[in-house]
């Protein structure tokens, strides 16, 4: 059996020793350890993977870990089994490239999630859900029906026990209520190298500014638009010879790769969030 | 003999034919041609290199070109000999990496310019000017002496017939007066991927925002700070494990490479500016 | 109407003038021109796009171009309409990522081709052809049936008037006979930065060598394995912490992007081949 | 006081716990830990930095560490103080860009080494040694004087207590004898993305093959030419429009950056070598 523990706490001497000793004494064998100390903030972060025998009692381990390590060190910690497959909802609008990329990875077993449904404010991409045989819900959002739409979205998320949400070019703002229920559990892809060109039409803005690189940024969604903790970014060179249409075309490839990398990092429990930034374990 | 012509004008049919025919009939042989049409703006850009016999009469060619091509097509055009070596002034403050990089390229013949002097508002880098045997002028700039400092700077620029200025991490704002006298002839290096993190302390801002890439941007200086036409940009990946000091260290390598690329493009007459953007010929 | 002309010929003075004059006099308006001279080989290459009125007589233009320009300059030239959609066959084996990527681009209209069929030596990916409703032909290849398999492949290629073939991770060698019938018309993706790690299992070889970057290369297929003209390459950084499985996973993203870029360049008539190298127009 | 320990040993359970416990009990506070397990080879690697009080007895610590940890776990380990500045010799021939880059970093305090001398088989770069006031030794190497040249080189290396050697485009093969005395202590820069284009004239070979990226590789020198453990690699895109001269020019920038990164990693004790590969700690 394999286990993953994510830890953050106030930095102090002896944490690694304490944790690795506890795991060792509990019969575990550490196979991966990555840690980070933010010296300015005085915070310690660690991701540990360890193996155990198959009759390892996870519940008992967790109780003991909390009393002997978690509490004394005032840790914020969580423990996962890599075998647990999370439920991932996908929100889309009209662009299909990110959706296709995610679903093809899902279908080929590259992306280890369940996808209970695809939700959209438009019907344009329903055909893809049919291609991949995944339920599709059309919930249009207008000024008038916002509360009702949110209610329907939440009902779906609850009913399907959704663990996290991927906004695969969902061109609609997610409500504060949903954001607060899914803190650091909504992943968005923005089509610029943030913080440059936040907001609408970033390729148009990039073209107007005459930049020589364009980018894409995946981040956790917070209430402030395009300002959440960044998970992954990448860029591609452009030149004066490229039109806005070329920017959009080159950007599509970036967006889908950068989003999928972020989703994978989240699924593999390799992300931690603090101070509106991320620690991304290797 | 080799000649370079840079052209921009309102786009219309037949420009390439007209120019290449004129060169052909004048005894020239086009060895390079790159053109670009900005369809939104309706502007045509072209860079042509052609060879001629050694008894080619450049003055007569220019006069004829103006009357037969330039005027009819209402061109903004200029003609250069690649053998003409421009005079390049360097402005620095306290950081030495860009200065060292430029001077070592200069010394080894990689960068084809004359460097009549290095100007600084501090004395810290005088030792490098001595290492490379280039005159160094120390002109401190304070609130009180601004006018006098500008006067001294202009006197130096005029006396040495400076063609263009490189701000190799010059941490002082160049005056409007100098900018207006050297339009599109002052090259700055800014240590971020503009338009993100314009202004002071971009590495600190990038660190605070938690970006996963940092960049550097070389651009022509305009009155608006860090908002001039971008010549060249590049980026390097960073992670949570990098401190601000690491950002600065990685950034140094970017800055010097990105600045030197821009300087070379300018020297080789491969840049054109319009609408606060650049066309960079290959 | 838009037209594309691709030209290569021995380099000499006046070619651009001659071609642009001819187009001008035939009522065309050049909207794009990119040219390249290989000085060592003494060869001139050009790609021109021009607009014409809708009653432009293409046949007559081509005949005149050949007699007045093509013959005198001993050109190898061809002319295309961007509206002509080529027929592209896809050959696959068991890996699905490149196939999914191509088909999703095709389905969304990003890739302007017809796909008459998918051919495979295995049945594993038949389900994808069904998802996208494209005919699937299973032609196993063994030592014994090679001639018969080639016969069936050629029959399919001829019957469907296939213009070019994409090997989207086809793990089987295409026969010399087919290669000779589709010279510079078969595009392969190899999962290394060629010429490093040609042949089988490049990720394993890269892992063993301890490289810090891995790559992917799309190229036209020639008789010599993995040695044809390179169209596009890209790389991604790796470290000691990545396993062969990680290399393969990172490589998948590279492969599909690099292959799709090459296919697009081919479809847009932006590639020319000479001396086992490519000219890629912008 | 700060201390760095590098460890490698056969992988087994409890190593991290044992080491961190020992450091904790010795009064140290771990501020950085990075570890790697090569599962195929069954080898464990770790780099630890810890702080101690200023009256920490390093000698006693080392003796105890060896008896209580090193011996029982059969570790290959070493301990360093970051304050110890190593002696680095530079070997060059005629190209100056890597030398200039290293010396400017050295002069500005970015590179924390002593440089007792520069050695060359030519006199071309003597002027740079004078610019930077570093002793320069000219030891020509011919077929006839090989033994004598090696003797002089070794005498210099011994007399100046050289810790490691940087071949900054030294176009001469270092003798087996010197390599064996400086195992994993000679850093070379090769101007290709190895293993592609090993040996002489890699830019010419890359041009001939028509690659779309060129690269540079820094590696430890072993007896087999260009086949030692790779420390760092990077690449830059090229196109058909670039000549061999352009490749060389673009390559210069890569070479100097890639070499300097490798030198810094070595100086900061972030490299470990096994099975002709490197582990590079973050």
Automatic annotation (TrEMBL), chains A, B, C, D:
Residues forming the catalytic site: 226
Listed pathway(s): Purine metabolism; IMP biosynthesis via de novo pathway; formate from 10-formyl-5,6,7,8-tetrahydrofolate: step 1/1
Organism listed in the record: Croceivirga thetidis
Function: Catalyzes the hydrolysis of 10-formyltetrahydrofolate (formyl-FH4) to formate and tetrahydrofolate (FH4).
Gene Ontology molecular function, alphabetical: formyltetrahydrofolate deformylase activity
Enzyme class: hydrolase
Pfam families in UniProt: ACT, Formyl_trans_N
Domain ACT span(s) in chain numbering: 4-87
Family affiliation: Belongs to the PurU family.
Designated name of the protein: Formyltetrahydrofolate deformylase
Catalytic activity line of the entry: (6R)-10-formyltetrahydrofolate + H2O = (6S)-5,6,7,8-tetrahydrofolate + formate + H(+)
Keywords of the record: Hydrolase, One-carbon metabolism, Purine biosynthesis
InterPro entries cross-referenced by the UniProt entry: ACT-like_dom_sf, ACT_dom, Formyl-FH4-Hydrolase_C, Formyl_transf_N, Formyl_transf_N_sf, PurU, PurU_ACT
EC number: 3.5.1.10
NCBIfam families according to UniProt: PRK06027.1, PurU
